[in-house]
Specification:
By secondary structure, the chain is α+β, with helices and mostly antiparallel strands. About 35% of the residues lie in helices and about 20% in strands. Strands 4-3-2-1-5 form a five-stranded antiparallel β-sheet, with no helix packed on it. A two-stranded antiparallel ribbon has the order 6-7.
Length: about 140
């Protein structure tokens, strides 16, 4: 499911892949408006399934980080006001989610964006459990 959820550089929020065209894709905003629009290769489009967070040892797939937040928040949105939260508050919260995150390469804005994305996913009842099963099969667990 996370393969069809997209982030577009320079545009806020998340988008759902609707269809592919010849030179573009059609995406739909994951908000109340559900606005559809074309996105082009120049827009730097990335699937959430292709994103990972830096840790001290390796990169951890975003789906596992999202699962950690889901478990911590018991399936609810993160209550923290990410716009008003200080860098210290963000990092303390994120350390509960991913204790070994690379403190030099993960910036406050990365944590803000991750929490914002998590809240959008929860608000839209997006089930990424299949993505987690695939990850477990790949890692041999």
């Amino acid at each position: 499911m996370l393969e069809t959820i997209l982030a577009i550089s320079g545009k806020p929020g998340l988008y759902k892949l609707v269809t592919r065209g010849r030179q573009s894709i059609i995406v739909e905003t994951l908000d109340e408006q559900k606005k559809r629009m074309p996105a082009f290769a120049k827009d730097k489009i990335i699937s959430l399934a292709d994103i990972a967070m830096y840790t001290d040892d390796e990169e951890k797939p975003l789906k596992l980080v999202l699962k950690s937040i889901l478990d911590k928040e018991e399936g609810k949105e993160v209550a923290m006001d990410i716009k008003k939260a200080s860098g210290k508050e963000l990092r303390e919260y994120f350390a509960q989610i991913l204790p070994d995150f690379d403190r030099d390469r993960v910036h406050d804005n990365d944590i803000r964006k991750l929490i914002q994305w998590y809240n959008i996913i929860v608000r839209n009842n997006i089930d990424f459990s299949e993505d987690l099963k695939e990850e477990e099969e790949e890692s041999g667990n």
